Every structure is written in C-alpha cells, then in structure tokens.
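Ticket 4471: requesting a sanity check on a complex prediction with zinc ion. Repro inputs:
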Amino acid sequence: MTEPSLLRIGDLAAATGTKIVTIRYYEKIGLLPAPPRTGGNYRAYSTTHRERLSFIRRSRALGFTLDEIRELLELSADTERDCAAVDRLVTSHLVEVEDKIADLQRLASELRRMKESCRGGTIDDCRIIEALSSQPTLP
Amino acid sequence: MTEPSLLRIGDLAAATGTKIVTIRYYEKIGLLPAPPRTGGNYRAYSTTHRERLSFIRRSRALGFTLDEIRELLELSADTERDCAAVDRLVTSHLVEVEDKIADLQRLASELRRMKESCRGGTIDDCRIIEALSSQPTLP
DNA sequence: CTTGACCCTATAGTGGCTAGAGGGTGCAGC
DNA sequence: GCTGCACCCTCTAGCCACTATAGGGTCAAG
Ligand SMILES: [Zn+2]
Ligand SMILES: [Zn+2]
Ligand SMILES: [Zn+2]
Ligand SMILES: [Zn+2]
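Returned structure tokens:
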C-alpha cells in the first residue's frame, strides 16, 4: 500500500544522473511523458517516470539514438511479443558502432603516419602541412 | 604566363568532392574567402581557392573540426615558423580520436555481451530489455 | 525564344543537448 | 511577517557541420 513517492525534477535528475534541462527536453520531444503538476506548477514524477528515464539513460550510454530508444521503449511495453525485433535493433546498432570504430581507426593510423613523417623545422618544410596540402583525399 | 582558369562553384565542387551548399557555407563562416563575382553574379574561383578548399576537405576527412582547420590554415601560411604547433595540433586531435575509439569499443563489447545474453522468447523474458531496464548505468 | 542546366539568396531544419533571461514557489530562520 | 535562498517555471537562442527548400536569376544551345 505504499504509494510511490513523488519526485521533483531535481530529485529525478539526481536519481538518474540526468541534467534538469535534458529531462525537460525529453518531455518536449515526447520521449518522457509529461507528469502531473503540483499546486505551484512543479513537475511531480512517480517511480514509473524514474524507471523510464533510467531506461533511456542506459540506452543513451550505449550510444542508441533517441529514435532507437523510442523503438526500444515501444517494444519493451509489448511484453508478449517475440523479442527478435529487439535483437535486430541491437544488432544493427552494434554494426553502426563497429563501422564507426573502423572509420576512426583509419583516421588514427593516417594521423599517426603523418605525425611520424614530421621531422621538425619550419612550417615550410613540414611534412604534415605538405600532406594536407597535396595528398589525395582519403577514399 | 598561363592565367589560372576561373571555376564556377559547380566546377569547384566537382574538383574537390564538396557539395555546393557546403562551399557557400564555408564562405559564410569565413573559412573560404569570398571570391570575385562575374557579371551575372556567379562566384568565380581561382586555383588558390581550389587549393584551400582541398586542404579543408582533406583535413575534414581526417576528422579535424572546422576550428582546428582554421588554425591549421593559419599555421600553414606562416611558412618561417617552427612546425611544433602543427605537431601539437595533430597530436591532440589524435588523442581525441583514440579516446573516441576506446569509448566506442566499450560500447561495442557491452552490446555484444547483451546480444549474447538473449536466448529468444517473448519481450517479457528478453535479457536485453532486462539489462536496459535494471542494470546500473555504465561508469 | 524557349528549354534546361546552372547559379543566386534567404530561411529553416537536423540531433542532442546547453545557456541564459526573467520570473515564480516553498521553506527555514529571524 | 518578512527575507533569503534553493529550487522551479517558460521561452528563446546557440552549438556543430551541414542539408533542404522556396523562389527566383543567368546563360548557352537548339
Ligand atoms: Zn544506432
Ligand atoms: Zn612538421
Ligand atoms: Zn580534433
Ligand atoms: Zn531477447
């Protein structure tokens, strides 16, 4: 019979490691439902809100976009459904992340190559500047 | 004595693999100098512009921000100066890239772990949803 | 003299927030 | 009561690096 305690936005922010403005932003874009208000027009959140926001933040920490999170939230509410759709979403996000890693590794090795080519001296002789000035664009 | 040929914005775009709107954007933010205009008010670029834009695009392909590129461009014009500043810029950018790679690798391995934990079935039993709903946020 | 490829400006939108102005609320201490 | 303070409210604008759209003008070929 313990009623879930009501949280003010600052409490919810502290409980989930989210900034207050970010919480209001999530409400504005319809990711977090607008909570009831107190007499003084303060937002009054319940534990349901807290759970949903935690879900969002954990998903964000894994790099999901807000749209992907919207989908995950919808799926998670559809409890009887097969979870293959969740797997697909996670898999395709993982592929994105792996692609991004591969991109960045190409950049990093090119940057290291450039760095090693520099033997000091004036800008005029700098191999880094030379590379940026005349090498072909990366494929 | 061969005068450098004048390029219209579409030619410059084709020559550097840049979109026309992006070229105008670079001009607007002062990264690429505004070229003279023809009678019909078309931008008329010279090879100097083409070289500068190529430099910008190659630097972008290496992940430098436009502000970093602004600095690189300033440095590259200061031909007698010691190139240590260039090295510092490249090194700090490389560190950024490496940090980003490390971040993404953490995400990827967490995503793979979650994916493996899913044994199929309904959403209600899905370990992925469970992990997003109740695991502690990543550190 | 019309077609069509090309060019121009200006404005607004993307994602995921962040910053600031200008004000209201609620509670403790005096 | 009254003041100070932490907290809350809305609204607008800004960040990065573009991208998209509307509503026009230019120019050479057929
Ligand atoms: Zn994704
Ligand atoms: Zn050097
Ligand atoms: Zn950088
Ligand atoms: Zn599952």
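Notes from triage: Chain A touches chain B through 55 residues (CB under 8 Å). Leaving this open until the requester confirms.
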